[in-house]
Each structure stands twice: as C-alpha cells, then as structure tokens.
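Subject: complex prediction, re-run

Hi both,

The earlier run crashed halfway through, so I resubmitted it with identical inputs.
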Amino acid sequence: MDIFEQLREKAKEEIKTVSSSKELNDLKVKYVGKSGEITALLRGMKDIPAEERSSFGKKVNDLKDEVSTIFDEKENVLKENELNEKYKREAIDITLPGKCPEVGNLHPLNLVKNQIIDAFMGMGFNIFEGPEIDTDYYCFQALNIPKDHPARDMQDTFYFTDNILLRPHTSPGQVRTMENNKPPIKILSPGRVYRADDDASHSPMFHQIEGLVIDKNVSLCDLKGLLDEFVRIMFDRETKTRFRPSYFPFTEPSVEVDVTCCKCHGKGCNLCKGTGWIEILGAGIVNKNVLEMSGIDSNVYSGLAFGLGIERIAMIKYGISDIRTLFENNVKFLKQFNRR
Ligand code: FA5
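This time it finished cleanly. Structure:
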C-alpha cells in the first residue's frame, strides 16, 4: 500500500471508532487540520521531483476531499444520534395531568356560617353585627339578668373591668337593634363570643348567630315553623326537630331545640351520647321586660329570638367529634371542605 492508501484506511478505521462530535472534531484536526497528517503531505511537495509534483498534489487533494467527505458523513450520523438522545431525554408525556396551582378554600366555620345566613336571608332577615367587647348592661342587665342573678353562672365570662367584658353570647345584638329600630324587626346577628369553657364540645372562643323577630302577634308557633324550615334547609328533609322546655331570663317561655343525630338518624350513637338527639340552639318568646327596657311597647308587639352555635351545627353536619379540630388548622382536615 502506498502512503495515500495507508492514510485513507487509517483515517477510515479511526473515524469508525469515534462516538461523539467532539472526538470527531479532534480527529479531523489530526488529519486535515493546518498541521494534520494529510496537510503535511502538501508541505513535503518541495522534495518531490518537479515532473511528479502535479500528480502528487492531485492525489493529496483527492485524498483530502475523500477523507473530508467521510468526516462529514460521520458528523451527520453523530449529530442525528445526539439529537435523538436529546429528544429522548427531554421527552414530555402530554397525557400526564397538569400541575394545578393550589387554591385555598373557605374554613368549614365560614362555610356553615354562610349557609346559615343564606337560609335566614331567604326568609327576609337582615344582618346586624354588634361589638365583641361590650358592657355589663348589654350582655346581662338589658337581657333581664341583673347583677348577682344566678343565670350569670351559665356563662362564665372574661371581664376587663367590673363593667366591660368579652361578650358571652350574641344576645346583646337583640337589645342594640331594638333600641335603634322600630318594629317590624327581623335581624340576624352573627359573631365571635367568649366563655371560660374548654372541652371536646365547648371552646373558650366560639361563634353564635342570634335571630330576632319583633312584630304584632309573634308566637311560639312562628318560632317553631321558622326553626323547622331552617333545619330542613341546613340538614335534610328527614332531620326532625324537638323543642324542649328550657330557661333563659330574656325569653318566656324558653326552649332548647334538638335535631335528630346526623350520624345514627335517631337510633343513638357516640356522637349523640346514645340519645338520638343533638342540641343546636336556645330560643324563646322575648320576655316583656326586655321589650320594655329596649323601648318597645309590649302591649302592642311581641317577639321571638334564638341563638345558635355555629361550631355545633358544623360538628353535626360534618360528623366532627371534637370542637378543637375546628381551630387546629390542620391543612389535611381543612382541605376536606373544598367544594370545587
Ligand atoms: C345562649 O347563648 C343564648 N343567648 C341563646 C338564646 C338566644 C336563647 C335568644 C334564647 C333567645 P346557650 O348558652 O345555650 O344560649 O348557647 C347557645 C348555643 O351556643 C348552644 O346551643 C351551643 O350550640 C353553643 N355553645 C354554647 N357554649 C359553647 C361553647 N363553649 N363552645 C361552643 N359552642 C357553645
């Protein structure tokens, strides 16, 4: 084999073994670069006899072209392989579900509060929000609970001074509304209330919604019809109500309202402590003393009032057995109430 053939075969063999564009480029420099082995042949032309120089030069150029073509072909193959590898690495499975941004949702207490408000707004109630820090007069005295009355013990209370306290119920809203409005009155007063309570069904801070209707001839019958309809809207048509005689100084007569347990439907279970019933609110016909103290003529007007605990309704509706779960803000718990 002459030098040309030897170089051609050597280059071909080496090109075959190359597996990346970088290696191929290095090899190209080695053969056809400025100081490459084939280019070196041209520099040696001065030693070739003059009559052979032109055919030698042609052979070198032919070899250079041939080897360059092999490099180009190999380069195309390598580029295509590298591109295919890149496509494989970056492949996207478009059938996979997309990543949704996390969206928050309403706290279960707000969900239930809104449902309760919607139910009563549909029956013509308006909203009045009273202050969370209130006076002894509005929290107790104007509600027919004088100083040292034993009924104050039912609501063990947080005081700032002898006269200023965190309201223990939303009933002061009744008084403020009656003082500032003429009958007919139909209001709901939602808000936070505070008591020195703390167990699985009693929280030191909880939420109530007060309802008050003042008009001519308002009776216990109206109260029963109103609350029956509310229970049917909030729970389901199968849920029954039970009115138990009770005592509140600001209503006469007074009742407590129970609903059939949502878990056992009245059979008796751990949630309803075996009774089949769960208490949701206190209510009654507004005491004449309260009407008079607030400037309403009790010979012309009568009224009904009720106060319900939002946590209690949420617990019944969603089968929550410990009230504290509602305030721990465990995200796994809260996500269950996402209504999307
Ligand atoms: C009252 O607070 C009366 N003001 C309700 C009322 C209004 C009666 C108008 C008559 C007329 P009671 O203390 O029972 O009543 O509380 C009402 C509701 O609040 C209860 O049925 C219960 O659902 C809820 N509740 C009471 N204490 C707590 C507590 N510590 N934690 C969570 N919910 C409570």
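The CA atoms of residues 243 and 257 lie 5 Å apart.

- K.
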